[in-house]
Specification:
This protein has 289 residues and is α+β, with helices and mostly antiparallel strands. The chain folds into two domains: 2-84 and 258-288, Immunoglobulin-like, CATH 2.60.40; 106-256, C8orf32 fold, CATH 3.10.620.30. The protein has helices at 106-116, 124-133, 141-152, 168-174, 179-191, 282-288; strands at 2-25, 35-45, 50-54, 60-64, 70-83, 156-157, 176-177, 197-204, 218-225, 229-234, 239-240, 245-251, 260-265, 271-281.
Length: 289
């Protein structure tokens, strides 16, 4: 078990005062057998009413409506979590359905159908690249998924704070992007060969700052496998079921998983966004204090 402290600060600055509609925040990690939220606090400015709900994916959603007008919107989330990692290897499932082509049971297919349907248009660039990734029928699904994860890991990484995600074809044409571009490429590619895959956002623990995407929110891919269930693959860093991945939200598409989204009322003029995320061992912070 590892105790970690997470601080996530989001700061919007506007040239002109604006009012605010409801803001949708996805900041609280998903409690599970592998992760427990021990402490949580949220500071916002301007102040306003807050309420908590769960969305259709069972993500914990905070709805916040700032009062009055302001030239700045600040959201600071602080968390202490306990992480109970479950390594993927050396476990190898014996289920013959966990092989290429993947086969789901009837009941699983009914639940997984939304995550098996591609959201983006077919593109010959994606089709050609996907054919290159395929091996002989009967290959273990884990081998195929790990190979794809490591292939995308070779693409050039560049942080991008602007909203939006590249199409899979754009990412392949550029052979580069940010973590959400790589995750979305893998999700959409896998759906085209029969896998149930979903988009994940959260945090990345990188004590030595050696992992790509550290210091900001992170995105990766989950794939459903018979006998293993939802399994994490991070194509930005070539990771699988890593204890360094801290999931906050899962969704069918990236547009549903933005950490902060909402509306403005009025003309903000020039504006900018800054995001800062720190993930560190909770014991280290206690010692420093």
């Amino acid at each position: 078990m590892t105790r970690l402290m997470i601080q996530h600060e989001t700061r919007y600055r506007y040239e002109k005062p604006v009012a605010f509609g409801p803001q949708r925040l996805l900041l609280r990690p998903r409690d599970s057998h592998g992760l427990k939220v021990e402490k949580a606090s949220l500071a916002v400015g301007p102040p306003g009413p807050i309420r908590w709900t769960y969305d259709a994916y069972s993500n914990c959603v905070c709805w916040f409506t700032p009062k009055g007008e302001a030239t700045e919107l600040v959201i600071v989330s602080q968390l202490v979590i306990e992480r109970f990692p479950a390594p993927l290897l050396p476990f190898q499932p014996d289920n013959p359905h966990t092989a290429m082509p993947i086969v789901y049971s009837r009941d699983d297919r009914a639940a997984l159908a939304p995550f098996m349907a591609p959201d983006s248009e077919d593109d010959p660039i994606v089709t050609a690249w996907l054919k290159e990734q395929m091996a002989e029928p009967g290959e273990a699904a884990l081998d195929f998924l790990l190979r794809m994860t490591r292939t995308i890991d070779t693409f050039a990484y560049k942080a991008r704070y602007e909203e939006g995600v590249q199409t899979p074809a754009q990412t392949l044409a550029l052979r580069g992007g940010t973590c959400r571009d790589f995750a979305w490429l893998m999700v959409e590619a896998l759906r085209r060969v029969g896998y149930a895959a979903r988009f994940v956002t959260g945090y990345l623990h990188s004590p030595a700052a050696t992992l790509r995407g550290a210091g900001a929110t992170h995105a990766w891919c989950e794939v459903f496998l018979p006998d293993l269930g939802w399994t994490e693959f991070d194509p930005t860093n070539g990771l699988a079921e890593s204890p360094d991945l801290i999931p906050v939200a899962v969704s069918r598409t990236p547009r549903e998983a933005a950490p902060v989204s909402g509306t403005l009322i009025g003309d903000p003029g020039e504006h900018d966004l800054s995001v800062k995320v720190t993930v560190s061992a909770a014991e280290d912070l206690a010692t420093a204090a």
